[in-house]
Amino acid sequence: SQKIEQNSEALNIQEGKTATLTCNYTNYSPAYLQWYRQDPGRGPVFLLLIRENEKEKRKERLKVTFDTTLKQSLFHITASQPADSATYLCALGIGSARQLTFGSGTQLTVLP
Amino acid sequence: GAVVSQHPSRVICKSGTSVKIECRSLDFQATTMFWYRQFPKQSLMLMATSNEGSKATYEQGVEKDKFLINHASLTLSTLTVTSAHPEDSSFYICSVLLLRGHFGYTFGSGTRLTVV
Hints:
The structure holds 2 protein chains of 2 kinds.
Chain A: E1 3-6, E2 10-14, E3 19-26, E4 32-38, E5 45-51, E6 56-59, E7 62-67, E8 72-77, E9 86-94, E10 99-102, E11 106-111
Parallel strand pairs in A: 2-11
Antiparallel strand pairs in A: 1-3, 3-8, 4-5, 4-9, 6-7, 7-8, 9-10, 9-11
Chain B: E1 4-7, E2 10-13, E3 19-25, E4 32-38, E5 44-51, E6 57-58, E7 67-73, E8 76-81, E9 90-97, E10 105-107, E11 111-115
Parallel strand pairs in B: 2-11
Antiparallel strand pairs in B: 1-3, 3-8, 4-5, 4-9, 5-6, 7-8, 9-10, 9-11
């Protein structure tokens, strides 16, 4: 069966450290993968998109890797801040329908 | 950047009544909008794809007669939950794919529906 799994439901780290979140998928062949941030009671906010032929993407303190052999994406936040505390969702773009399939998210808490 | 406005943000309705949720793209035209539902601590589940000027495409298991979608213009899609029941209580979110810029999806702020 098809699955998208994010490494843990919750992750706590100390301010200033690098947070690493994992997204693994099975039985999908995504054309691209996206990461979103979702705050409580709000819609997701787009962060980064990485295509199947790209290994790594960066944006400010964010870095995403995409390994289609391992079927895994890693999402890193460097120099984390309490304001980075939120739920982070990975989403796969499948086929030409342009629909997204989401993982269940990892709730990140950055402790001051 | 692109803005998607969703209204209302919260609604409480009685069981058996209908509720309409609006999703507007404020500064661009959207031929396609997506409607998602999210239960607490769970992922966003795609309900349907709303196409301007034509019928919506519903995901397996989503009742099209219960969740009516209308996409009558390039800037507005509506989702009507008909004959709502407590199990329909959820967080409903619309989104639009941007075909320019970052090519990500822009989401509305969501509607928290509580059926009592």
